[in-house]
Amino acid sequence: MSESKLKINANLEITGYALETVVTMAKTLSKKDEKGRIKIDTAGLVSDMITKFLEENDFDGFVSKAENYQGLIQSD
Fold first, then answer.
1. Helix (H, G, I), strand (E, B) or coil at 63
2. Assigned domain for 6 exists
């Protein structure tokens, strides 16, 4: 059974290397128009790449483990 997905906006920290690599790969792999220009939404591409990574690396399983919340939630 496939579970429905929600699109959320979140603030994430990634390295400059990761962002630069996504931009470089997008430029390398994208089709150019008749004037040689590339038109791509790099923010959308980063979002899609992170989504793909989370799906392939079992984010659902990760969030199901209490130990993964250590240091992230302040509890009294």
1. helix
2. no
The pLDDT, as a whole number, for residue 76 is 64
Residue 20 counted as domain residue: no
pLDDT in tens, 1-54: 468 999 999 999 999 999 999 999 999 999 989 998 998 999 999 999 999 999
Residue 72 within any structural domain of the chain: yes
Rounded CA gap, 43 and 23, in Å? 9
Query: CA-to-CA distance for 28 and 59, rounded, in angstroms?
Result: 29
The CA-based angle 31-37-41, given to 5 degrees, is 70
Overall number of domains in the chain: 1
- Tokens 């591409």: give the residue: 45
- Identify the domain containing residue 45 by its residue range: 41-76
Residue 64 falls inside a structural domain:
yes
Rounded to whole angstroms, how far apart are CA atoms 44 and 61? 25
